[in-house]
Amino acid sequence: MHKITQLLHVLLFSFLLLTSQSAAAAEQEYALKAGFLYNFARYGEWHDSALSPDKFVICSPDASFTETAKSVLNQRSVNKRPITIRHIQFELEQVNRCQLLFISSASLSDWLSWQKQQDYIAENTMVVGESKGLIEAGGHIRFFIASGKVRFEVSPQQLQQSGITMSSKVLRLGRVLER
Amino acid sequence: MPLVILSPMTYAAGSLDDLDLESLMAMDIQVTSAMKRSQSAFDTATSIYVLSKERITHSGATSIPEALKMVPGLVVRQLDNNQWAISARGVASRFSSKMLVMIDGQSLYTPQFSAVYWETLNVPLYDIERIEVIRGQGGQLWSSNANNGVINIITKNSLDTRGLYADAASGSQVNIDANIRYGNDISDIGSYRVYGHVKDGDASEKGLVLEPNDVTQQYSFGGRMDFSTSDHWSGFVQGDITESKLGQNYRGVIDDTNRNITFTDKLERTDSRVMARLENRMSDSANQMLQVSWLNQSGSQTYLQEEFESFDVDYQMNFIYQALQLDWGLNYRYSTISFEDSLFLHSDKEFDNLQQYGGFIQAQFALIPEELDLVLGTRAEHNDLTDWEYQPLARLLWKPQENQVLWSAVSQSVRIPSLIEFNDNYAINGQKVSEVLPFSTGIEAIDEYHIKTYLNGNDDVEAETSLSYELGYRLSQQSWNLDVSLYHTEAEDVAVIDINPNVEQFYPALALFQSGQLQQALQALTQTTIQFDIVSTADLTTQGGDIVLSWVPADMFNAELGYSYNTFEYDLPENTFPAIGRDSTTRQIFAKADVHLFDSHNIFATVRVENSDAYLTENYTLLDLTWNWAVSQHWGVSVTGKNLFAGSHLEYANRQETYTIPNYIDESVLFKVTANF
Description:
The complex is a heterodimer.
Chain A: H1 2-15, H2 27-43, E1 44-46, E2 56-60, H3 63-72, E3 77-78, E4 81-87, H4 92-96, E5 100-103, H5 108-118, E6 126-129, E7 141-146, E8 149-154, H6 156-161, E9 164-166, H7 168-171, E10 175-176
Parallel strand pairs in A: 2-4, 2-5, 5-6, 6-7, 8-10
Antiparallel strand pairs in A: 1-9, 3-4, 7-8
Helix pairs in contact in A: 2-3
Chain B: E1 5-7, H1 21-26, E2 38-40, E3 47-52, H2 53-59, H3 64-68, E4 74-78, E5 84-88, E6 99-103, E7 106-107, E8 128-135, H4 139-142, E9 149-155, E10 163-171, E11 174-186, E12 190-201, E13 216-228, E14 233-253, E15 260-283, E16 286-301, E17 304-321, E18 324-339, E19 345-347, E20 353-368, E21 372-383, E22 387-390, E23 393-401, E24 404-415, H5 419-422, E25 424-432, H6 433-436, H7 444-447, E26 450-456, E27 464-476, E28 480-499, H8 507-514, H9 518-526, E29 529-554, E30 557-571, E31 576-578, E32 584-597, E33 601-612, E34 620-630, E35 635-644, E36 659-660, E37 668-676
Parallel strand pairs in B: 1-2, 6-9, 26-29
Antiparallel strand pairs in B: 3-8, 4-5, 6-7, 8-9, 10-11, 10-37, 11-12, 12-13, 13-14, 14-15, 14-36, 15-16, 16-17, 17-18, 18-20, 19-25, 20-21, 21-22, 21-23, 23-24, 24-27, 25-26, 27-28, 28-29, 28-31, 29-30, 30-32, 32-33, 33-34, 34-35, 35-37
Helix pairs in contact in B: 8-9
């Protein structure tokens, strides 16, 4: 028994000196968030039904997010409308074609300054982000991390003002904000 | 010990498949680190079973031990309506099981004996996220005393338990079992919940030796507060207090007859615990965690007063660097134990506090990325009784295809002697003269006389070390999963009882007897004692395996079939007999079905066939059946039948034991109303 014990110790310490190629650590977080967006799309109700009747468009100016979302939501659909993931620039025409817009923390400042320039108020676009201040800046849902898990806070009033209602199935799982 | 976050098997292999909101919320954002952080159970090189919250609530269980009855490979034996003996891969008694039991990583193991007080372990079942059960060794990650397994009860983040919940149950064995919980947000930085529980339980119908007295009166109160100040810092504080008045029958030696006398008594216990954890996500690939906890258990009954207090600090860090995943941690535990000398117990080494400290390190390395992983780790821990102990392991995980895993492990685990083995002396049932002497005197008063007999702890007792070889295979198909594990464990320095009656001490009494002085001979016998010593000189081999087949043909139906086989075999030196369990074979067949009907109805059934000679009982087959009806969004009712078709059966009948007296376990029915707002 002692020999085995010794052998295991030698192996352990020699092996700590080894390294090899990398694993993508942040990808899981965006994969999970893409999964949440899919659920927000499924359980949200867009009052203006004329918008893109043949597809459901999820956009983000963050390429690392759209790449991950494409693989996670591949072949998915919302109310029989196939999901399209679009990598966009902040331009009014592009933003207006999105039913759901994800503002990553890397793109928050661009979003804020573009919004100011345009005097933009989201209509028929659900704005979801992950940075503090997003709701205050007119966003609808914000992800946060608690004990290593993705959670979200949501402002039903702001959603309503943008012409979207969220099902209670989602609201009861999130932190509901008064504003 | 801290932080195991193993996703249930259903999230394994292609884990983001169903994108169900609740499943997403249960998943960790990082896949960085190995076993002590998030990992799918499918990819774990351990024999693990995860009991999900859905199964716990569907089952109609009202306590943790009842919920554990649903875990294949775990042998859960009920001594009476309050007391339990639970183990995997071994034989348990009420006071010994060599299993480490934790709530959110806070150890409940008492150094006085090698088990936990299941009867006062109160965690609201509706607030449990999941229960992870590791069959077999867990010492390297989880600290000592986990030779036979680890049970980690993980409670929900209070963010997920906001609102009002209440339930009330009553039935043939329970007058009332009621729970209430309220939770809410704390501005935008956190959330909390507070809960209360009251139980008034009846006695069983039929006793083995005495009229049953296993009534329960229990009150609990507790709460938890979680906070996350940013995406990098989060933590929680939780606390709980449980007051219990438990009827029990037991036996002890308290007078000149030197024989076990049976008692009907009430045991009063107060169990409290507080813990706080701070977690820091240092980067996408590194985390650290600090946990501080305190535990107090005090018990009072006619012949025994005990108090156990423990203070724990744990630090842990996980990181990933290229293909290397590394976890390491440090731990410190300070315990105080006061076990007042009583008529049948005294301590001679006067240990009233114990310290334990050490650390672990574990590295997982992808030898072939996404296909072959090697895990190496060790734990070094110092304790006051046996100094430094080491628990190394090596595991290999081969994933030839996305849906298949073959794993193997070699590990060493250590159990530090309990104070009963090390420090305490117990008066046990006296030995009859006729059993000690090689001849009979023919005089009843002498032959039938019971000589005072002690079971003595011994500070030469060493830690029990077991070396385990394990092999496992998992297969995940569209609608079914297979999980097989096999093991062979060789334990050294196993505590056994040395029986040297020291016949020479009887010579004076015999001389008096031969010279016809009977009264004096009897008088001389009262001066004799037989000392049984605990020695760690035996070897123990346990081996066997578990097969669990789960089948999910449709959303509305899932089922599970399991078979476990374990053998337990001592290699005993001369003049010794086993202290814990006996040579035995245990077989278990398991079938479980969870059926949803018409949206609002659910039937949950578990059948267990227990076939074992370890507990001196007949084999038995049990059916537990629950019908849940969600009457509306807020209201639910359920009816549970337990131990159906088993009538009055014995699950535990080791009658030679000092102290415990079991009862027959009854069929019972429970009605429950649940409100959720």
